Amino acid sequence: MEYIAVLLPSICLGIIFWLILRWIMRGDRTERAVEARSQEDAAQWYEQLKARDGEDLPFGRPDRPRRRPRG
């Protein structure tokens, strides 16, 4: 019975640690999946915008430098 009393706190802490790590890993996996869906959605939106407006890019042209505001 002494062995159980000695090992029980370590076992409980190990289980709590495992549960916390599991929670973190699941959260990270979910966040990565949501980010990937968001990136796909943004890419799809941008492709639809390019198809609608042609090659006139809505956020400026990459071959032209941006103008700096005077002041």
Question: What order do the SSEs take from the amino end to the carboxyl end, as H and E?
Answer: H
The averaged pLDDT comes out at 85
In one word, what is the shape?
rod-shaped
List unreliable stretches of 5+ residues: none
Taking the sheet with the most strands, its summary is: none
Overall radius of gyration:
26 Å
How many helical stretches? 1
Give the end-to-end Cα distance, rounded to a whole number of Å.
81 Å
Helix coverage percent: over 70%
Would you report the number of β strands? 0
Strand content: under 5%
Helix/strand/pairing class, anyone? Answer: mainly alpha
What does this 3D model show about the protein?
This protein is mainly alpha-helical and 71 residues long. Helices cover 73% and strands 0% of the residues. The longest helix has 52 residues. The chain is rod-shaped. The model has no long low-confidence stretch (mean pLDDT 85).
Compact summary:
By secondary structure, this protein is an all-alpha fold. The chain has 1 helix and no strands.
What descriptors fit this protein?
rod-shaped; mainly alpha; 71 residues
Protein topology:
Elements: H1 2-53
